[in-house]
Amino acid sequence: MQSRRGSGVAGKQVVLTGGSNGIGLAAAEGLAARGANVALVARDKARGEAAAARARAGAPGAAVDVLVADLSSQADVRRLAAEVGSRYERVDVLANNAGAIFASRKITVDGVEQTWALNHLAPFLLTDLLLDKLRGSAPARVITTASDASKNAQIPFDDLDGTVAYDRGVGSGRGFRRYGQTKLANIVFTVELARRVQGTGVTAYSFHPGLVATNFNHNNGALMGLAMALVKPFARSAAKGAETLLWLAEAPEDALRSGGYYFDKKEIPVPAGGGVEGIGARLWELSEKQVEGPAGAPG
Are 151 and 215 in contact (CB under 8 A)? Predict the structure, then answer.
C-alpha cells in the first residue's frame, strides 16, 4: 500500500459509507494507510468494528471510527449527518459508497422503493445535510460510487416505485434494471451537484469501479448467488475496484474535472440516459420532494 508520506489525504477527515465490506472496506484500508482519518459508516456495528480493526491493522495508529446507520431510512441518514456534524470539525471528503441490489421489490419505512432509497436518496440527502460542513472544509470533495449498470438505464421519473422495473426483471436478473436506474441517478446527481456548488470550493465526482469480486448481491438468494459465482473468475479484486475512489480522494485538483464520471482513473462519457438537457435539475427537484425538504446547495 501507498505510504502516508506526501499523500493527498493524509490528516484529512473522510466520511465513507458502505465501508464494512467489498470496495468500501478496501477503500477504508487504503485511506487509513494513506494517513486519512476515516469515519466508516456501516449498517451493522459488529461488521463495522471488524472492518475498522482490519484497516487499523494495516496502518497502526490510524484513526478509524465506526458510525452506524441504516441508510435506507431517512431518519437514520439525518441522525448520521447530525453525528458527523457534531463529532468532526471538518469533512474533507464524503465518499458515498453504500449501495445494494435487491431481487424483490420492497418499500421502506419512508414509503420509498428500497433500491432507490438506499442507492440514490441516501447519498443525495447525506450530501445535502453535510454541505455546510463541506463548504467550511473547502477544498472538499464528494465522491459517489456508480456502476456500468447505468449504461442503458433511464431515470425512472414515471416509475418511482419500481413497479415496472421489477415486473420486467426475470430470474436471477430481477432487480438489475432498477439497480441500473439508481446508478445512473448517482451520475446525474454528481453532475448537478457540481453545477450547484461551483465556486464554493466543493467538487464532486462519480466513478465506475468495474466488475468486482465481492459479496455484493449475495443477500438475494441462490440464483443471485449463482450468477455472481459465475462471473467471479472474470471480476477484479475489491482493492482494484477501490483504486479510482482512492485516486479521486487524493489526486491534485487540476487533474480532475468536477462533475466528471471516471473509470480506472480516467474520465469517461456520462451514459446516454444522463445526458438529457435539464435532467439533473429535474432529478434534484424530485429528490428534494422525496426527502421532504429543500436541498441546501445553491441553485
Answer: no
Which of the residue ranges 50-64, 123-137, 161-175 would you say has the lowest mean pLDDT? 161-175
78-124, pLDDT tens digit by residue? 999 999 999 999 999 999 999 999 999 999 999 999 999 999 999 99
CATH architecture of residue range(s) 13-99+114-158+182-213+236-290: 3-Layer(aba) Sandwich (3.40)
The one catalytic residue among 88, 166, 179, 261: 179
Which residues are within 8 A (CB) of 5 and not within 5 positions of it... i.e. 6 or more apart?
none
Output the average pLDDT for the chain: 90
* Integer angstrom CA distances of residue 25 from 183, 199, 203, 288: 20, 32, 23, 30
* Annotation marks residue 88 as catalytic: no
Per-domain residue ranges of the chain: 13-99+114-158+182-213+236-290
* Three cell numbers written together for 12: 484529512
